[in-house]
Amino acid sequence: xxxxxxxxxxxxxxxxxxxxxxxxxxxxxxxxxxxxxxxxxxxxxxxxxxxxxxxxxxxxxxxxxxxxxxxxxxxxxxxxxxxxxxxxxxxxxxxxxxxxxxxxxxxxxxxxxxxxxxxxxxxxxxxxxxxxxxxxxxxxxxxxxxxxxxxxxxxxxxxxxxxxxxxxxxxxxxxxxxxxxxxxxxxxxxxxxxxxxxxxxxxxxxxxxxxxxxxxxxxxxxxxxxxx
Length: 228
Description:
four-stranded mixed sheet, ECO RV Endonuclease, Chain A, alpha+beta, three-stranded antiparallel sheet
């Protein structure tokens, strides 16, 4: 899909204009415009819509741990929502550094870098609907408020303290009020390097940071409500 990608946007205004021009289309219609058929396998369909939008909007980061639109520092996040605008799933942010923590500071974290400026693209759908039927909603350029960042930071510090102590296995879905850590792998047998409580390098399931649906639901309600 990368060979059909648009050039990177020069600024946020150009990015938002591109995104707004796609609102109302289904992913199937958008793929058809680019001569791409949606995958039939549910496993392959998982990231197809996001990749399609990255190419249509000119994202350049690929698999690098940088914001998708590198030149302007904006991350793209798709968000499946029901017809009433309620998020249907948590939102993946980035991988968790299980083996070593580059910096103990929130300001230097990949989570903060990824969420500093986000282009949210709601995908209106229903549970079980095929990926090509998802309809692009109105895009939103967003940065966390001071209160939102404070909550994100508190969760990140709590979670990363456990990770740095080699206690990632103790983390459950109950940890974190807006940000959580969950397993992140297409294959249940996948393993990555981690550090255990004794400081030894061990193989462990990869994990990712995710935004809870309560956080994204409040975010959408604040910006899409009448007068919001």
